[in-house]
Amino acid sequence: MLMALFFAGQPPAKAAIVIGGLLLLTRRVRSERVYAQIDWSLLLMFAGLFIIVAGAQRVLLTPDTMVAARPLHLDRVPVLSAVTAVLSNLVSNVPAVLVLKPFIDPLADPKTAWLTVAMASTLAGNLTVIGSIANLIVVQRAAAGGVTIGLWDYCRVGVPLTLLTLAIGTVWLSR
Fold it and tell me: Which of 5, 75, 109, 175 has the smallest number of CB atoms closer than 10 Å to its CB?
């Protein structure tokens, strides 16, 4: 039913909320059991992250900031890939995309720019543990299962893999 709503042109957020509500009403599993499975601290972290990003956008992304970013040449795929990768590892990949949005829309080729941001933010999320919320979830779940994944253990695999995939993606999109 969810896929049918997507293909019918319904906004994804609206379709997901409607179907999620229906599932809660029609399931044989009691709602309390579903709510008990929710990681509330993770939801709170996401909410706080998006509040901080929205505040930063309003305060930091001024017209002066937009003008100051012009010399970076974000219209060049390698530059935009690098900026996205660095920003993704400072604030996580989803907030990085939100912060970059005002810089992408005015570029000469926004389609290529958005593809670059999508590629770089996704792949850069693998660089460090904090590069993606998904990494934090995996490390947290592993710790709960008795497996410790340290920063250096993660980076030993994450850094070379990320640099290689970012290079391939950048070359691919630069063609």
Answer: 175
Residues 166 and 81 sit within 8 Å (Cβ to Cβ): yes
Residue 93: phi and psi, rounded to 5, are -70, -40
Read off the pLDDT of residues 120-166 as tens digits, 9 standing for 90 and up. 999 998 998 888 888 888 898 899 899 999 989 999 999 999 999 99
**Residue 85 token pair:** 């990768």
Signed CA dihedral, 123, 128, 133, 134: sign only: positive
> What is the value of pTM for the model shown?
0.74
Phi, psi of 109 (to 5 degrees): -125, 80
